[in-house]
Amino acid sequence: MPQVRKVEDDVLLARLAHTFKDVGYEGASLSAISEATGLKKSSLYHRFPRGKEQMAQEVLQQVADTLEAELFPVLAGAETPGRKMAAFVRVMDSVYAGGRESCLLNMLSPPRGTQGVCGEAIAGTFHRLRTALSQVAHQASAGDDEADLRAEEVLVALQGALVMARGIADPAVFERTLTRLPGIIDPNGGA
Amino acid sequence: MPQVRKVEDDVLLARLAHTFKDVGYEGASLSAISEATGLKKSSLYHRFPRGKEQMAQEVLQQVADTLEAELFPVLAGAETPGRKMAAFVRVMDSVYAGGRESCLLNMLSPPRGTQGVCGEAIAGTFHRLRTALSQVAHQASAGDDEADLRAEEVLVALQGALVMARGIADPAVFERTLTRLPGIIDPNGGA
DNA sequence: GTCTATAATATGATAGAC
DNA sequence: GTCTATCATATTATAGAC
Predict the structure, then answer these.
(1) Beta carbons within 10 angstroms of residue B16's beta carbon
(2) A116-139 and A81-95 helices, crossing angle to 10°
(3) How far is B173 from chain A (nearest CA, A)?
(4) I want to staple A26 with a disulfide (CB 3.0 to 4.6 A). Which of A46, A104, B27, B56 is the partner?
């Protein structure tokens, strides 16, 4: 009888993501993952034959897919920079649960030197975000170099706010930081 | 004959810190630590009877001690805000090896909810840094609330730059961010 | 203070029943 | 597709020689 999927793929990935965000790659033992997902280890290997590394890869891929579907079309669209950044803030506030969850790009980051597949995915997502934000800054009348710097500054603030929110156990840092982001990309945007 | 210290305490702590910065708390197995420090596991337990948790605690304590000795006296001293922030940048550039090393406050951060001793130390160091930076901002004619926000913004940028530098394997992000920090605390400081 | 040796447990991973 | 049972290895931790 139990030939049916006990946990749907999207739910499974969401629970995996939550676990990785909480304890990181090394901290996420298969036992912990099993408990978090409700699937036994062997069932997890059925879904992810290459084990934990594949889980991390697919979770990162889903992050990339979500951004590609929900964020980048807006940032590349016809709206004003102000509206685009409002959407950016909305998406990030949702992705990071108001600062109560950490970033997978941080928590899944491999050791220095050991780049590997996850490292490539993480770097790629950072670059993709920076490019998209830079174009918004460019739209807000920044020169090419200045636009890149503004985009970088936004990502730096986003990541730092998440680290600090976790470090002092206070999501308010993240919320305060979010409100600053539109003004970084578009200083004349009536922030 | 080998009744003498093979590795001095400060060297031992430095090697431990390097390992934790690289692979995080969970990723730093005793085997890895043993190899990195040049001491066998049982020797490590002789130095740190409570094991890895104690190692992390002492490494964090040493970070706090270093800041207390090298940074906070300057920030609380009689110099101009500009000189204080120049010293801040110098210390941070050294502590994080120009962006090629991660922050222990990030890499040793315990899972959400599980605060524990390390969590307390990390939060304490964040608060201590924020307070000291806020006083510099206050000196640079910021109001009390504004000073706190500027201090927070500096720490957020610092942490985020380290995460991003690691994520895209490019320390330049960190160096660029460092140059912005004095202007955040003192916008009229001729940055 | 350091080492070799060892114990108890946890981990990543596989085999095979249903 | 999920499960129980199992394996080989790695992990934290301790005992005792030098």
Answers:
(1) 24
(2) 150
(3) 8
(4) B27
CB B140 within 8 A of CB B185: yes
Closest alpha carbon to B25 in B111, B97, B89, B100: B111
- How far: B28 CA to C15 C1' (Å)? 32
Distance CA B122, CA A163 (A): 11
C-alpha Rg value of chain A to the nearest Å: 18
Query: In the predicted model, is pLDDT for residue B1 greater than 60?
Result: no
A102: its two tokens: 């950490």
Q: What angle do CA A71, A75, A79 make, to 5 degrees?
A: 125
Both tokens of residue A22? 């909480």
| Burial class of residue B10 (count of CB atoms within 10 Å of its CB; 0-12, 13-18, 19+) | exposed
The first and second tokens of residue A2, run together, are 């139990």
From residue B146, alpha-carbon distances to A53, B140, B142, B152, B185 in Å are 44, 11, 6, 10, 10
- Burial class of A154 by CB neighbour count within 10 A (0 to 12, 13 to 18, 19+): buried
The tokens for B20 are 């934790």
Rounded mean pLDDT of B13-40?
Answer: 98
Tell me, yes or no, if A134 comes closer than 8 A to chain B by beta carbon.
Answer: no
Question: Is the pTM value of this prediction over 0.90?
Answer: yes
pLDDT tens-digit map of B58-69: 999 999 999 999
What's residue A1's pLDDT?
Answer: 53
Contact at 8 Å (CB) between A78 and A132? no
Nucleic acid strand C within 7 Å of A52 CB: yes
CB contacts of B123 in chain A (<8 Å) are: 167-169
